[in-house]
Amino acid sequence: xxxxxxxxxxxxxAILMMERxxxxxxxxxxxxxxxxxxHMLINSGKSVRSALTVEDIVTIDxxxxxxxxxxxxxxxxxxxxxxxxxxxxxNAVVHTHPLWSTLFSMAGVxxxxxxxxxxxxxxxxxxxKTASINTKPLGAELAAAMGRHRVIMLKSHGSMxxxxxxxxxxxxxxxxxxxxxxxxxxxxxxxxxxxxxxQCAVINGNLWKPNLLRKVWxxxxxxxxx
Length: 226
Description:
alpha+beta
Protein backbone atom coordinates (compact mmCIF):
# COMPACT_ATOMS: atom_id res chain seq x y z
CA UNK A 1 0.00 0.00 0.00
CA UNK A 2 1.30 3.45 -0.92
CA UNK A 3 2.18 6.03 1.73
CA UNK A 4 0.43 9.40 1.79
CA UNK A 5 3.48 11.01 0.18
CA UNK A 6 3.47 8.39 -2.57
CA UNK A 7 -0.24 8.98 -3.16
CA UNK A 8 0.41 12.71 -3.49
CA UNK A 9 3.10 12.09 -6.10
CA UNK A 10 0.81 9.71 -7.98
CA UNK A 11 -1.91 12.37 -8.09
CA UNK A 12 0.60 14.89 -9.41
CA UNK A 13 1.79 12.50 -12.12
CA ALA A 14 -1.77 11.52 -13.05
CA ILE A 15 -2.84 15.15 -13.51
CA LEU A 16 0.28 16.05 -15.48
CA MET A 17 -0.19 13.04 -17.76
CA MET A 18 -3.86 13.83 -18.31
CA GLU A 19 -3.14 17.49 -19.00
CA ARG A 20 -0.62 16.54 -21.67
CA UNK A 21 -3.18 14.22 -23.26
CA UNK A 22 -5.89 16.96 -23.25
CA UNK A 23 -8.01 14.98 -20.80
CA UNK A 24 -7.64 17.59 -18.05
CA UNK A 25 -7.30 21.31 -18.70
CA UNK A 26 -6.72 24.22 -16.32
CA UNK A 27 -9.73 23.23 -14.21
CA UNK A 28 -9.60 19.44 -13.83
CA UNK A 29 -9.06 17.74 -10.48
CA UNK A 30 -8.06 14.33 -9.19
CA UNK A 31 -8.47 12.99 -5.65
CA UNK A 32 -7.93 9.89 -3.58
CA UNK A 33 -9.43 8.79 -0.30
CA UNK A 34 -7.24 8.91 2.83
CA UNK A 35 -7.53 5.45 4.44
CA UNK A 36 -9.21 5.37 7.84
CA UNK A 37 -10.63 8.90 7.75
CA UNK A 38 -13.30 10.92 5.96
CA HIS A 39 -10.53 12.88 4.26
CA MET A 40 -9.21 13.12 0.74
CA LEU A 41 -6.09 14.30 -1.05
CA ILE A 42 -6.88 16.65 -3.97
CA ASN A 43 -5.11 19.28 -6.05
CA SER A 44 -5.92 22.80 -4.91
CA GLY A 45 -8.21 25.07 -6.86
CA LYS A 46 -5.44 27.50 -7.80
CA SER A 47 -2.93 24.83 -8.83
CA VAL A 48 -1.48 25.06 -12.34
CA ARG A 49 -2.38 21.71 -13.86
CA SER A 50 0.47 21.80 -16.38
CA ALA A 51 3.13 22.50 -13.71
CA LEU A 52 1.83 20.64 -10.67
CA THR A 53 3.97 19.63 -7.68
CA VAL A 54 3.21 17.78 -4.44
CA GLU A 55 2.93 21.19 -2.75
CA ASP A 56 -0.29 21.66 -4.74
CA ILE A 57 -1.94 18.63 -3.14
CA VAL A 58 -4.03 19.48 -0.08
CA THR A 59 -5.92 17.32 2.42
CA ILE A 60 -9.55 18.19 3.09
CA ASP A 61 -12.48 16.55 4.84
CA UNK A 62 -15.67 15.65 3.00
CA UNK A 63 -17.15 19.05 3.87
CA UNK A 64 -14.28 20.85 2.16
CA UNK A 65 -12.48 21.96 5.32
CA UNK A 66 -8.73 22.18 5.00
CA UNK A 67 -6.91 19.53 7.06
CA UNK A 68 -3.41 19.93 5.63
CA UNK A 69 -1.99 22.48 3.20
CA UNK A 70 -2.43 26.20 2.69
CA UNK A 71 -4.62 26.48 -0.41
CA UNK A 72 -8.37 26.03 -0.85
CA UNK A 73 -9.71 22.99 -2.73
CA UNK A 74 -11.51 23.25 -6.09
CA UNK A 75 -15.03 24.62 -5.77
CA UNK A 76 -16.29 21.36 -7.28
CA UNK A 77 -14.83 19.21 -4.50
CA UNK A 78 -18.42 17.99 -3.97
CA UNK A 79 -17.94 15.77 -7.04
CA UNK A 80 -15.40 13.84 -5.02
CA UNK A 81 -16.81 14.02 -1.50
CA UNK A 82 -20.32 12.89 -2.42
CA UNK A 83 -18.99 9.98 -4.44
CA UNK A 84 -16.87 8.86 -1.48
CA UNK A 85 -19.89 9.14 0.81
CA UNK A 86 -22.04 7.09 -1.57
CA UNK A 87 -19.48 4.48 -2.62
CA UNK A 88 -17.19 2.96 0.04
CA UNK A 89 -15.60 0.87 -2.74
CA UNK A 90 -14.32 4.01 -4.49
CA ASN A 91 -10.86 5.25 -3.47
CA ALA A 92 -10.09 7.63 -6.34
CA VAL A 93 -12.16 10.13 -8.33
CA VAL A 94 -11.15 12.29 -11.27
CA HIS A 95 -13.15 15.09 -12.87
CA THR A 96 -11.86 15.66 -16.38
CA HIS A 97 -12.47 18.31 -19.02
CA PRO A 98 -11.71 16.16 -22.07
CA LEU A 99 -11.67 17.38 -25.65
CA TRP A 100 -13.25 14.55 -27.63
CA SER A 101 -15.74 12.93 -25.27
CA THR A 102 -17.21 16.30 -24.30
CA LEU A 103 -18.23 16.74 -27.94
CA PHE A 104 -20.43 13.66 -27.59
CA SER A 105 -22.18 14.94 -24.46
CA MET A 106 -22.73 18.30 -26.17
CA ALA A 107 -24.42 16.56 -29.11
CA GLY A 108 -26.27 13.99 -27.02
CA VAL A 109 -24.51 11.15 -28.87
CA UNK A 110 -23.41 8.21 -26.70
CA UNK A 111 -19.79 7.12 -26.55
CA UNK A 112 -19.91 3.44 -27.46
CA UNK A 113 -17.50 0.49 -27.13
CA UNK A 114 -15.94 0.71 -30.57
CA UNK A 115 -12.43 -0.34 -29.47
CA UNK A 116 -11.40 -3.15 -27.15
CA UNK A 117 -10.23 -0.85 -24.36
CA UNK A 118 -13.73 0.62 -24.15
CA UNK A 119 -14.99 -2.69 -22.76
CA UNK A 120 -13.61 -1.81 -19.31
CA UNK A 121 -15.59 1.44 -19.15
CA UNK A 122 -18.90 -0.31 -18.59
CA UNK A 123 -22.10 1.62 -19.16
CA UNK A 124 -21.33 5.30 -19.63
CA UNK A 125 -23.98 7.33 -17.85
CA UNK A 126 -25.01 10.90 -18.74
CA UNK A 127 -25.74 13.66 -16.21
CA UNK A 128 -28.18 15.88 -18.13
CA LYS A 129 -27.53 19.14 -16.29
CA THR A 130 -24.96 21.60 -17.60
CA ALA A 131 -23.67 23.04 -14.36
CA SER A 132 -20.69 23.41 -12.06
CA ILE A 133 -21.08 20.79 -9.34
CA ASN A 134 -20.34 23.30 -6.61
CA THR A 135 -22.92 22.38 -3.96
CA LYS A 136 -23.48 19.30 -1.82
CA PRO A 137 -26.95 18.59 -3.29
CA LEU A 138 -25.58 18.70 -6.84
CA GLY A 139 -22.72 16.42 -5.84
CA ALA A 140 -25.15 13.96 -4.28
CA GLU A 141 -27.36 14.10 -7.38
CA LEU A 142 -24.36 13.35 -9.59
CA ALA A 143 -23.29 10.44 -7.38
CA ALA A 144 -26.83 9.02 -7.53
CA ALA A 145 -26.86 9.33 -11.32
CA MET A 146 -23.56 7.45 -11.46
CA GLY A 147 -24.94 4.62 -9.34
CA ARG A 148 -22.63 1.60 -9.28
CA HIS A 149 -20.98 2.50 -12.59
CA ARG A 150 -17.46 3.76 -13.28
CA VAL A 151 -17.99 6.60 -15.74
CA ILE A 152 -20.47 9.44 -16.13
CA MET A 153 -20.48 12.26 -18.65
CA LEU A 154 -21.52 15.74 -17.53
CA LYS A 155 -23.40 17.37 -20.41
CA SER A 156 -21.30 20.00 -22.23
CA HIS A 157 -18.90 20.00 -19.29
CA GLY A 158 -16.69 16.95 -18.83
CA SER A 159 -16.76 13.62 -17.05
CA MET A 160 -16.37 11.95 -13.67
CA UNK A 161 -14.51 8.69 -13.21
CA UNK A 162 -14.69 6.68 -9.98
CA UNK A 163 -12.50 3.64 -9.34
CA UNK A 164 -10.68 1.49 -6.83
CA UNK A 165 -7.48 3.52 -7.00
CA UNK A 166 -5.51 6.24 -8.76
CA UNK A 167 -4.12 4.00 -11.51
CA UNK A 168 -7.56 2.58 -12.32
CA UNK A 169 -9.21 6.01 -12.45
CA UNK A 170 -6.42 7.34 -14.66
CA UNK A 171 -6.73 4.47 -17.13
CA UNK A 172 -10.51 4.77 -17.33
CA UNK A 173 -10.26 8.50 -17.97
CA UNK A 174 -7.76 7.94 -20.74
CA UNK A 175 -9.72 5.08 -22.30
CA UNK A 176 -12.88 7.20 -22.36
CA UNK A 177 -11.13 9.90 -24.32
CA UNK A 178 -9.35 7.46 -26.64
CA UNK A 179 -12.65 5.73 -27.40
CA UNK A 180 -14.43 9.02 -28.14
CA UNK A 181 -11.65 10.22 -30.43
CA UNK A 182 -11.59 7.02 -32.43
CA UNK A 183 -15.37 6.80 -32.61
CA UNK A 184 -15.54 10.38 -33.89
CA UNK A 185 -12.87 9.72 -36.50
CA UNK A 186 -14.52 6.49 -37.66
CA UNK A 187 -17.86 8.27 -37.98
CA UNK A 188 -16.30 10.50 -40.65
CA UNK A 189 -15.80 7.38 -42.79
CA UNK A 190 -18.87 5.32 -41.95
CA UNK A 191 -20.68 3.61 -39.10
CA UNK A 192 -18.27 2.15 -36.51
CA UNK A 193 -18.86 -1.42 -35.39
CA UNK A 194 -19.97 -1.53 -31.76
CA UNK A 195 -18.87 -4.40 -29.53
CA UNK A 196 -21.72 -6.52 -28.18
CA UNK A 197 -22.34 -6.86 -24.43
CA UNK A 198 -21.06 -10.42 -24.65
CA GLN A 199 -17.85 -9.29 -26.33
CA CYS A 200 -17.40 -6.51 -23.76
CA ALA A 201 -17.78 -8.97 -20.88
CA VAL A 202 -15.06 -11.23 -22.24
CA ILE A 203 -12.71 -8.36 -23.10
CA ASN A 204 -13.26 -6.66 -19.73
CA GLY A 205 -12.26 -9.89 -18.01
CA ASN A 206 -9.09 -10.00 -20.06
CA LEU A 207 -8.08 -6.34 -19.73
CA TRP A 208 -9.17 -5.34 -16.20
CA LYS A 209 -6.05 -6.72 -14.57
CA PRO A 210 -3.58 -4.81 -12.37
CA ASN A 211 -0.55 -5.55 -14.56
CA LEU A 212 -2.29 -4.39 -17.73
CA LEU A 213 -3.67 -1.24 -16.11
CA ARG A 214 -0.21 -0.48 -14.73
CA LYS A 215 1.21 -0.93 -18.24
CA VAL A 216 -0.93 1.99 -19.43
CA TRP A 217 0.18 4.10 -16.45
CA UNK A 218 3.85 3.24 -17.00
CA UNK A 219 3.62 4.12 -20.70
CA UNK A 220 2.33 7.62 -20.01
CA UNK A 221 4.61 8.12 -17.02
CA UNK A 222 7.58 7.22 -19.20
CA UNK A 223 6.61 9.94 -21.67
CA UNK A 224 6.13 12.40 -18.79
CA UNK A 225 9.61 11.91 -17.34
CA UNK A 226 11.70 11.28 -20.45
